[in-house]
Protein backbone atom coordinates (compact mmCIF):
# COMPACT_ATOMS: atom_id res chain seq x y z
CA UNK A 1 0.00 0.00 0.00
CA UNK A 2 1.25 3.46 -0.88
CA UNK A 3 -0.23 6.86 -0.17
CA UNK A 4 1.57 10.02 -1.25
CA UNK A 5 0.33 13.60 -1.07
CA UNK A 6 3.02 16.09 -2.02
CA UNK A 7 3.13 19.82 -2.69
CA UNK A 8 6.37 21.69 -3.17
CA UNK A 9 7.38 25.08 -4.51
CA UNK A 10 10.20 24.89 -7.04
CA UNK A 11 11.49 27.83 -9.06
CA UNK A 12 8.17 29.68 -8.79
CA UNK A 13 6.23 26.55 -9.74
CA UNK A 14 4.20 24.24 -7.54
CA UNK A 15 4.68 20.49 -7.81
CA UNK A 16 1.62 18.47 -6.88
CA UNK A 17 1.45 14.67 -6.68
CA UNK A 18 -1.30 12.43 -5.32
CA UNK A 19 -1.05 8.63 -5.24
CA UNK A 20 -3.20 6.26 -3.21
CA UNK A 21 -3.29 2.55 -4.05
CA UNK A 22 -3.66 -0.66 -2.10
CA UNK A 23 -2.13 -2.82 -4.83
CA UNK A 24 1.35 -2.32 -6.36
CA UNK A 25 1.71 -0.45 -9.64
CA UNK A 26 4.39 1.00 -11.84
CA UNK A 27 4.02 4.78 -11.92
CA UNK A 28 5.63 7.10 -14.47
CA UNK A 29 6.13 10.72 -13.48
CA UNK A 30 6.39 12.46 -16.82
CA UNK A 31 7.60 15.96 -17.51
CA UNK A 32 10.13 18.06 -19.33
CA UNK A 33 13.61 18.74 -17.97
CA UNK A 34 13.63 21.18 -15.08
CA UNK A 35 10.08 20.40 -13.99
CA UNK A 36 11.10 18.82 -10.68
CA UNK A 37 10.92 15.11 -11.46
CA UNK A 38 14.13 14.25 -9.59
CA UNK A 39 13.10 16.57 -6.76
CA UNK A 40 9.99 14.44 -6.25
CA UNK A 41 12.07 11.25 -6.01
CA UNK A 42 14.47 12.93 -3.58
CA UNK A 43 11.55 13.93 -1.37
CA UNK A 44 10.13 10.39 -1.40
CA UNK A 45 13.57 8.95 -0.59
CA UNK A 46 14.03 11.38 2.29
CA UNK A 47 16.91 13.27 0.68
CA UNK A 48 14.94 16.52 0.50
CA UNK A 49 12.20 18.03 2.63
CA UNK A 50 9.01 19.15 0.92
CA UNK A 51 6.86 22.15 1.77
CA UNK A 52 4.00 19.72 2.40
CA UNK A 53 4.14 15.95 2.19
CA UNK A 54 2.43 12.87 3.56
CA UNK A 55 3.94 9.49 2.63
CA UNK A 56 2.68 6.17 3.96
CA UNK A 57 4.17 2.92 2.72
CA UNK A 58 2.78 -0.43 3.86
CA UNK A 59 1.10 1.25 6.84
CA UNK A 60 4.32 3.01 7.88
CA UNK A 61 4.20 6.79 7.87
CA UNK A 62 7.57 7.88 6.50
CA UNK A 63 6.85 11.59 6.06
CA UNK A 64 4.20 13.79 7.62
CA UNK A 65 5.25 17.43 7.44
CA UNK A 66 2.07 18.57 9.19
CA UNK A 67 3.10 16.62 12.29
CA UNK A 68 6.84 17.16 11.76
CA UNK A 69 7.57 13.47 11.19
CA UNK A 70 10.42 12.39 8.93
CA UNK A 71 11.81 8.83 9.03
CA UNK A 72 15.55 8.75 8.36
CA UNK A 73 16.74 7.73 4.90
CA UNK A 74 18.39 4.49 6.03
CA UNK A 75 15.20 3.34 7.79
CA UNK A 76 12.80 3.92 4.91
CA UNK A 77 13.63 0.72 3.03
CA UNK A 78 13.35 2.47 -0.33
CA UNK A 79 15.59 1.51 -3.24
CA UNK A 80 16.81 4.40 -5.39
CA UNK A 81 18.42 4.00 -8.81
CA UNK A 82 20.10 7.31 -9.65
CA UNK A 83 20.26 8.59 -13.21
CA UNK A 84 24.04 8.23 -13.45
CA UNK A 85 23.92 4.90 -11.53
CA UNK A 86 26.62 6.12 -9.05
CA UNK A 87 28.66 2.92 -9.06
CA UNK A 88 31.87 3.07 -7.05
CA UNK A 89 34.71 2.96 -9.61
CA UNK A 90 37.22 1.36 -7.20
CA UNK A 91 34.86 -1.52 -6.32
CA UNK A 92 34.04 -4.65 -8.28
CA UNK A 93 30.52 -5.36 -9.45
CA UNK A 94 29.99 -7.71 -6.51
CA UNK A 95 31.35 -5.17 -4.01
CA UNK A 96 29.05 -2.51 -5.44
CA UNK A 97 26.01 -4.75 -5.14
CA UNK A 98 26.79 -5.82 -1.57
CA UNK A 99 27.74 -2.33 -0.40
CA UNK A 100 24.44 -1.99 1.49
CA UNK A 101 23.71 -5.67 2.11
CA UNK A 102 25.65 -8.75 3.14
CA UNK A 103 26.11 -11.80 0.95
CA UNK A 104 23.01 -13.99 0.85
CA UNK A 105 21.01 -16.25 -1.41
CA UNK A 106 18.93 -13.18 -2.16
CA UNK A 107 21.97 -11.40 -3.63
CA UNK A 108 22.90 -14.45 -5.68
CA UNK A 109 19.37 -14.73 -7.02
CA UNK A 110 19.30 -11.07 -8.05
CA UNK A 111 22.61 -11.36 -9.88
CA UNK A 112 21.43 -14.40 -11.80
CA UNK A 113 18.04 -12.86 -12.49
CA UNK A 114 19.72 -9.77 -13.95
CA UNK A 115 22.30 -11.83 -15.86
CA UNK A 116 25.30 -10.18 -14.19
CA UNK A 117 26.72 -13.08 -12.15
CA UNK A 118 29.57 -13.49 -14.63
CA UNK A 119 30.49 -9.81 -14.19
CA UNK A 120 31.05 -10.03 -10.43
CA UNK A 121 34.83 -9.43 -10.55
CA UNK A 122 34.76 -6.68 -13.15
CA UNK A 123 34.94 -2.94 -12.42
CA UNK A 124 32.47 -0.27 -13.59
CA UNK A 125 34.87 1.03 -16.25
CA UNK A 126 34.70 -2.38 -17.93
CA UNK A 127 30.90 -2.40 -18.23
CA UNK A 128 28.59 -1.28 -21.00
CA UNK A 129 25.74 1.13 -20.30
CA UNK A 130 23.22 -1.68 -20.06
CA UNK A 131 25.46 -3.71 -17.76
CA UNK A 132 26.05 -0.72 -15.51
CA UNK A 133 22.32 -0.18 -15.25
CA UNK A 134 21.72 -3.82 -14.27
CA UNK A 135 24.45 -3.67 -11.63
CA UNK A 136 22.98 -0.48 -10.20
CA UNK A 137 19.51 -2.08 -10.22
CA UNK A 138 20.87 -5.12 -8.40
CA UNK A 139 22.31 -2.84 -5.71
CA UNK A 140 18.95 -1.05 -5.50
CA UNK A 141 17.19 -4.37 -4.91
CA UNK A 142 19.83 -5.80 -2.56
CA UNK A 143 18.06 -4.59 0.61
CA UNK A 144 14.64 -6.01 -0.39
CA UNK A 145 13.02 -2.56 -0.63
CA UNK A 146 9.32 -1.84 -0.20
CA UNK A 147 9.43 0.76 -2.98
CA UNK A 148 11.78 1.32 -5.93
CA UNK A 149 12.57 4.75 -7.38
CA UNK A 150 14.15 5.05 -10.83
CA UNK A 151 15.50 8.38 -12.06
CA UNK A 152 15.43 8.55 -15.89
CA UNK A 153 16.55 4.88 -15.99
CA UNK A 154 16.56 4.55 -19.77
CA UNK A 155 17.79 7.96 -20.91
CA UNK A 156 21.41 6.97 -21.64
CA UNK A 157 20.65 3.66 -23.37
CA UNK A 158 20.47 2.89 -27.08
CA UNK A 159 17.13 1.72 -28.49
CA UNK A 160 17.82 -2.02 -28.30
CA UNK A 161 19.18 -1.84 -24.75
CA UNK A 162 16.28 0.44 -23.76
CA UNK A 163 13.73 -2.15 -24.90
CA UNK A 164 15.57 -4.86 -22.96
CA UNK A 165 15.70 -2.68 -19.84
CA UNK A 166 12.00 -1.85 -20.02
CA UNK A 167 11.25 -5.58 -20.17
CA UNK A 168 13.65 -6.17 -17.29
CA UNK A 169 11.92 -3.63 -15.03
CA UNK A 170 8.54 -5.09 -15.95
CA UNK A 171 9.75 -8.58 -15.02
CA UNK A 172 11.14 -7.30 -11.72
CA UNK A 173 7.75 -5.80 -10.91
CA UNK A 174 5.87 -8.97 -11.83
CA UNK A 175 8.10 -11.11 -9.62
CA UNK A 176 8.48 -8.73 -6.66
CA UNK A 177 5.05 -7.08 -6.69
CA UNK A 178 6.31 -3.85 -5.12
CA UNK A 179 5.48 -0.34 -6.33
CA UNK A 180 7.94 1.26 -8.74
CA UNK A 181 8.05 4.98 -9.47
CA UNK A 182 10.16 6.17 -12.37
CA UNK A 183 10.57 9.59 -13.90
CA UNK A 184 10.92 10.26 -17.60
CA UNK A 185 10.47 12.90 -20.25
CA UNK A 186 9.61 10.19 -22.80
CA UNK A 187 6.01 9.45 -23.72
CA UNK A 188 7.16 6.13 -25.22
CA UNK A 189 8.85 4.99 -21.99
CA UNK A 190 5.87 6.01 -19.88
CA UNK A 191 3.34 4.27 -22.11
CA UNK A 192 5.51 1.17 -22.55
CA UNK A 193 6.00 0.47 -18.86
CA UNK A 194 3.68 2.33 -16.51
CA UNK A 195 0.29 1.26 -15.23
CA UNK A 196 -0.35 4.90 -14.36
CA UNK A 197 1.18 8.04 -15.86
CA UNK A 198 1.36 11.19 -13.77
CA UNK A 199 1.82 14.39 -15.76
CA UNK A 200 3.19 16.98 -13.38
CA UNK A 201 0.67 19.58 -12.36
CA UNK A 202 2.73 22.73 -12.61
CA UNK A 203 1.29 26.18 -12.13
CA UNK A 204 2.61 29.67 -11.68
Automatic annotation (TrEMBL):
GO terms for molecular function: ATP binding. The keyword Nucleotide-binding applies. Pfam families: ABC_tran. It comes from the Bacteria. Residues 4-202 form the ABC transporter domain. InterPro entries: AAA+_ATPase (IPR003593), ABC_SmlMolc_Importer (IPR050093), ABC_transporter-like_ATP-bd (IPR003439), ABC_transporter-like_CS (IPR017871), P-loop_NTPase (IPR027417). Keywords: ATP-binding, Nucleotide-binding, Transport. PANTHER family: SPERMIDINE/PUTRESCINE IMPORT ATP-BINDING PROTEIN POTA, SPERMIDINE_PUTRESCINE IMPORT ATP-BINDING PROTEIN POTA. This is ATP-binding cassette domain-containing protein. It comes from Staphylococcus hsinchuensis.
Amino acid sequence: MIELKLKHELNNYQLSINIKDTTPKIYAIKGRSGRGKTTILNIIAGLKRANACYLNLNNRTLTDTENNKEVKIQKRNIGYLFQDYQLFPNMTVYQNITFMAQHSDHIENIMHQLNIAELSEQYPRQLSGGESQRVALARTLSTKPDLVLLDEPFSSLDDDTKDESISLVRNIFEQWQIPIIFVTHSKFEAQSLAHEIIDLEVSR
